[in-house]
């Protein structure tokens, strides 16, 4: 085997050096395709959820970003959320007020900086989300039931790497 054959493709430092690069490229292509398909299904579910609960696409995107920020331990302020969503300050204020009135989110002071306000899911909004997405959780658990924990650990690492790559690319193109 030549040195060239043992080099990882696409800047990925791991992989079996005994596998031909074309196999690695095929795996990466299949993962990218799977991720696009999962994103499309997620979008379809989000649209159904939004339609059932009178949420616009921006409302649903806001809820998703609030949850991701909260789970990651970095709750988001209205201004930060507006930047992520590409909304003006006035549009963001309107969105936040609607979402608070509907019970989906609440404002609260940031415990690390009392001058800052953060957005969190409110209990009525969480209940609506649990009611809708709970059955999806059952489907996901059933779909993964026969997969060994080592596969789930590997999938978690792959999703983490893909998310980090997408975030890095976003930083590059967003300036």
TrEMBL record:
Give start and end of each HTH marR-type domain.
24-164
Region feature Disordered, mapped onto this chain: 1-24
Q: Which InterPro entries match?
A: HTH_MarR-typ, MarR/SlyA-like, WH-like_DNA-bd_sf, WH_DNA-bd_sf
SUPFAM superfamilies documented for this protein: Winged helix' DNA-binding domain (SSF46785)
What SMART domains does its record include?
HTH_MARR (SM00347)
One of its Pfam families is: MarR_2
| PANTHER family named in the record | TRANSCRIPTIONAL REGULATOR, MARR FAMILY (PTHR33164), TRANSCRIPTIONAL REGULATORY PROTEIN (PTHR33164:SF106)
- Record protein name field: Winged helix-turn-helix transcriptional regulator
Question: Which organism is the protein's source?
Answer: Rhodococcoides kroppenstedtii
Q: Give the source lineage, highest ranks first.
A: Bacteria, Bacillati, Actinomycetota, Actinomycetes, Mycobacteriales
